[in-house]
Design goal:
Layout (H helix, E strand, L loop, with lengths): L13 H11 L6 E5 L12 E2 L9 E2 L3 E4 L9 E8 L14 E4 L11 E4 L4 E3 L2 E3 L10 E2 L10 E3 L7 H9 L4 E5 L3 E7 L3 E2 L10 E2 L2 H11 L3 E8 L3 H14 L2 E5 L10 H8 E6 L3 E2 L4 E6 L2 E6 L3 H20 L9 E5 L10 E11 L2 E6 L9 H5 L2 E5 L11 E6 L6
Helix pairs in contact: 1-6, 3-6, 4-5
The chain binds adenosine monophosphate and magnesium ion (MG).
């Protein structure tokens, strides 16, 4: 990542930033084959093709009696000629005009096309009274109706959730090719930053960013190395960056990226690699630094704790996901009603911390009273962010706005 520099560059929109990330980043992690159970939340590194149909055979969706729909007499009575349970196929064809006792998942006897639920049937001597209003094919499941043999059931780049593991298992796969977890080095910077659990000297503050950013990375499936808190000293930061670059796929820092005298990330990264300063047209959040340290991607988030979480969601998350091999890096949004008035100066994309509540069947967002980028309690209080586009004007109560839940940050 080389190129444009900060100070005089124009503000960059999130969409421009994401397009640049998309163009510049490719998966960096190796591929390995792991047992299905170990693949949860990994990123798939192959297209998975079904070697079999699912279900493998036509079968019954209910407990009841299977029959040929065309054979059903007007009184619904058919003789019962056999029994078929799950795992025990019926041998031979269904005789003309007969019904077979069948249980859920049992293969349909050859010739049968319809199943009557046992709750709707009545057993009589030598036979069963079936309901006469069933349609041909009712309660029967067909081979391959879920997955057709030869089809791609999962695509490379998919994040493996429980349902993806389930479908892989259903087609008989015991192992999957997945990307190795991304190894991310995380540190905070600032002479005033102190570790939780230690006393605070005057003028100091506990480190929260390493905990939020570290947890966000872990929730995305990254393996983090906690490199602690670095002082505002160029040589120390530079040495730490150099060490981290050797053993990691990504370095993530917070603090030290504004333009103050004590902001040493820029010269430290520049001494070892390259750096773009992205002055994002967002609030809260800018600036974010992106670059590379001895070939290892680098992302420097701001210092303010709320800005850290928001820039993580907007910039670091898609970056991490792309480096991990994931293809879907988008954030799902949905429309909710604004339960507040808000003056929006067009030109900047704003993210408002908001909590959702139901009101007469509508989903209404209440806004946290303070917009301070250091007010971390606002993140605890809220469910997600109202996303106000650059070109939107003021918002009046009752207008629809876009909402992103915090759950989106973690997948
Ligand atoms: P900086 O970008 O380093 O100038 O930091 C901006 C603000 O965020 C300052 O008030 C810092 O004290 C605060 N800050 C920076 N890093 C952290 C951190 N790891 N935890 C909590 N607050 C931080
Ligand atoms: Mg600082």
């Amino acid at each position: 990542m080389t190129g444009r520099f900060a100070a005089d560059a124009d503000l960059m929109t999130i969409d421009q930033a994401l397009a640049q990330l998309e163009a510049r980043l490719a998966p960096v992690v190796a591929i390995e084959v792991v047992p299905l159970r170990q693949s949860l939340f990994r990123i798939l590194a192959e297209d998975v093709v079904a070697a079999v149909n699912v279900p493998p055979h036509d079968n019954s969706a209910v407990d009841g009696w299977a029959f040929r729909h065309a054979d059903l007499p007007s009184d619904g009575v058919l003789p019962v000629v056999g029994r078929v349970a799950a795992g025990h196929p019926f041998t031979g064809d269904l005789p003309q005009g007969g019904a077979v006792r069948i249980f859920t998942g049992a293969p349909m006897p050859a010739g049968a096309d319809t199943v009557a639920m046992q709750e709707d049937c009545r057993e009589v001597a030598g036979g069963v009274v079936l309901p006469t209003r069933l349609k041909c094919g009712d309660n029967a499941r067909h081979a391959g109706e879920d997955v057709t043999q030869g089809s791609v059931v999962l695509h490379a780049g998919a994040r493996l959730r429980p349902q993806e593991l389930g479908i892989a298992a259903a087609i008989g796969r015991a192992e999957l090719r997945v990307y190795r977890p991304l190894r991310v080095a995380v540190f905070s910077t600032g002479d005033e930053i102190r570790e939780p659990g230690t006393a605070l000297p005057p003028g100091c503050i506990h480190d929260s960013n390493r905990y939020t950013a570290g947890a966000l990375l872990q929730s995305l499936g990254a393996e983090i190395t906690d490199l602690g808190i670095l002082p505002d000293r160029l040589e120390v930061i530079q040495a730490a960056l150099k060490d981290a670059a050797a053993a990691h796929d990504l370095i993530l820092t917070s603090g030290g990226v504004s333009v103050g005298d004590e902001d040493h990330i820029k010269p430290a990264v520049l001494a070892l690699g390259s750096l773009d300063f992205w002055r994002l047209a967002i609030k809260p959040g800018r600036p974010v630094a992106l670059g590379e340290v001895a070939g290892t991607p680098f992302v420097g988030l701001p210092g303010n704790p709320v800005a850290v979480m928001i820039t993580f969601m907007l910039i670091a998350r898609p970056m991490v996901l792309r480096l991990m091999g994931a293809t879907d890096t988008g954030l799902k949004r949905f429309a909710v009603e604004a339960g507040f008035a808000f003056k929006h100066k067009p030109g900047r994309r704003e993210f408002l911390r908001a909590r959702l509540a139901h009101a007469d069947g509508r989903l209404v967002a209440a806004k946290f009273p303070s917009d301070g980028s250091g007010v971390l309690t606002s993140m605890v209080w809220s469910d997600g962010l109202v996303d106000i586009p650059e070109d939107r004007g003021d918002i009046a109560p009752g207008e629809m706005v876009e909402f992103v839940t915090y759950a989106e940050m973690m997948r």
